Amino acid sequence: MITAAVLGFVLAAFGVLVGFFLIVFGAAALAGAEGFEGFEEELVPGVGGGLGAVGGISLAFGLITVLWTVLMIWGSVWALTGRSRVLLIVGGSIAIAFTGLTLLGSLGDGAPGGILFSLLLVAAAVSTVLLVCLKPASRYFAARRAQRAATR
Fold first, then answer.
1. Which residues are CB-contacts of 109 (< 8 A; sequence separation ≥ 6)?
2. 38 φ, ψ (degrees, to nearest 5)
3. Is the pLDDT of residue 40 over 80?
4. 101-115, pLDDT tens digit by residue?
């Protein structure tokens, strides 16, 4: 159980980094799009609108990543305290989907370092979900429930 929560925290740390990068990149793209209004727009038509769209999409994905990060941290804390494993399963499942997509992208790129890193992220996400779903985890949560019920 502790291993699954720690992996959840590690994945959440990567979520913080990615979310921060996407938000900063989106804000910079939106600021750059404003600079293309006027004279620059005549030189390269449509660049301002394209940068604005890229900035908006990047900001949206950044905010979604931050929400996922909060879900993973919250789920890891609840799993450690024995309250619930549902949030960690949901966050881990989302991580499996997106890290799987990054692995497929890395395979297309062919860079060995990127493939290895993506493979490690997929393994961490799958391990998080699997460890929380095993029989010892069920016993852990049942014992914590009984302990909370006894203290009431």
1. 115
2. 100, -130
3. no
4. 999 999 988 788 889
Q: What are phi and psi of 88, to 5 degrees?
A: -70, -35
Q: DSSP per residue over 27-47, as a string?
A: HHHHHHHHHTTTHHHHHSTTH
Residue type at 103 in one-letter notation: L
The pLDDT value recorded for residue 39 is: 47
Q: Residue 116 pLDDT > 50, yes or no?
A: yes
- Kindly give, in sequence order, each residue whose CB lies less than 8 Å from that of residue 57, ignoring residues fewer than 6 positions away: 26
Residue 151 DSSP SS3: coil
pLDDT score recorded for residue 51: 74
Q: How far is CA 20 from CA 17, 41, 134, 147, in A?
A: 5, 29, 33, 39
Q: Tokens for 19? A: 């979310």
pTM of the model as a whole: 0.84
Residue type, 151: T
Listed by start position, the domains of the chain span 2-150
User: What are 124's two structure tokens?
Assistant: 């961490």
Alpha carbon 40 to chain centroid distance?
Answer: 37
